[in-house]
Amino acid sequence: MRKIVHIDMDAFYASVEQRDDPGLRGRPVIVGGAGPRSVVTAASYEARPYGVRSAMPSVRAARLCPDAVFVPPDFARYRAVSQQVRAIFARYTPLIEPLSLDEAHLDVTEHRAGLPSATAVAEAIRSAIREELQLTASAGVAPNKFLAKLASDANKPDGICVVRPERIDAFLLPLPVARLPGVGRVMQTKLEALGISDVASLRAWRREDLEARFGRWGGRLYELAWGIDERPVQPDRPRKSISAEDTLPEDLPAEALPPHIGRMADKTWRSAQKVGARGRTVVLKLKTADFRILTRRATQAQPPASAEALARAAIELLARVEDTGEERYRLVGVGLSQLERTDEATAPTSEQRTLFE
Fold it and tell me: Which fold has domain 241-356?
C-alpha cells in the first residue's frame, strides 16, 4: 500500500506578497489586475470571507471587498519560491509530482529521512517550509493521490489531515459529490436528480448502472466513491498541452460563445503562466448538444502574447466550425500545445524541463 502526501501551499501567491511586504500582512490582498477586464489570480485568507475567489472578475472583487489591496502577479518570483519548496520536498523523496507551482504529490512509501511514518514526513516538510521560507502549507496523507488531495483541503490553512486505510469510509462517505474531481455544476445537478448528493449515496449505485448512464465516467465515479485510485506518483510526467473547458449552464448557439471562449482562454493563460509555459498551437474544443466533440486548431508563427490574444485566436477558430445556424453547444474549451518555456522564466525547474524536453 502506498503512502502519499499532498502538499498545498496556503494562498501561495498572496502569501508570498504578504511575506515580502510587511505592509500587506493582515490585510485583504488580491493578486491580479484592477482593470475592468482583469480577473483575480489569487486572494489572501483575509479577502476570502468577503466572497473573493480566484478567476472572479476584479471589478466584482473590488465591490465585495472595498478595502482590498490589488497587487500585480509576479510569476518569476513565485516560480523561484516554488523551487525552494521543491528543494525541501527532495530532501525526503525523489518521487515528486508537481501539479502547479503551489501543490504537489509525494510518494513517501520509502523515504530518505528515517522518520517513523508518512505523517511525520508531512509534518517535517510543513515545519521546514514555515521555518525556512516563512510560509505555511497544508498537507493530506492517505493511501492514494485522490484521497491525499481531498485531505489537504480538510484543515486549511496551515493544517494536516491523515486518512488511514481503516478511516477511509469515515472520511469519504459524508462528503458532497461536488468535492469529487470532475464533478462540476452540471454533473452535480445530474447526480442530484438521481438522488445522489453525497459519496454515501453514490456508493449505493452499481458500477454497471453508473456506466450505463455516464459511460466511462460512470466507472470512474464508482471508483472514487470507493476511494480507489491506482495512479502512481509520476515525477517525470511530460506535459504536452494546457487547457481549460467548461460545461455551459444551457446549450447556446455559436454566436453566443465568444464570451465563454474568452473566459476559458483566460483560465488557460493563467495556467500557462503558473508553469512558465507558452504554446504556438491554439486549440478550440466544442461539444454539441448531442455530445459530438469538435476541435479546431491553428499553429501561429509566434505564441499568443496575452490572454486577450489567446482569446482572439480561439474565437477566430470558431469561424472554421461548420454550423447550420441551428446547432447548439453545451461545452467550450481552449487549449495551448507545442509548449515552450517563456523567456522571462529563470533556469527551469525539473517540472519545467519535463514540459519541454
Answer: Dna Ligase; domain 1 (3.30.1490)
Boundaries of every domain in the chain: 1-164, 173-225, 241-356
**Model confidence pTM above 0.85:** no
Q: Which residue has the cell 455530445?
A: 291
Question: What are the angstrom distances between the C-alpha of 90 and each of 101, 107, 308, 318, 331?
Answer: 15, 11, 37, 45, 40
- Choosing from 103, 132, 192, 357, the catalytic residue is 103
Cα distance between residue 332 and residue 330, in whole Å: 7
Among candidates 329, 291, 297, 328, which has minimal Cα distance to 310? 297
* Catalytic status, residue 245: no
Tens digits of per-residue pLDDT, 236-277?
666 678 999 888 888 899 999 999 999 999 999 988 888 788
- Beta-carbon count within 10 A of 87 CB: 12
For cell 518521487, name the residue.
Answer: 95
**Type of residue at 41:** T
Question: What does the pLDDT look like over 132-162, one tens digit per residue?
Answer: 999 999 999 999 999 999 999 999 999 999 9
Fold of 1-164: Alpha-Beta Plaits (3.30.70)
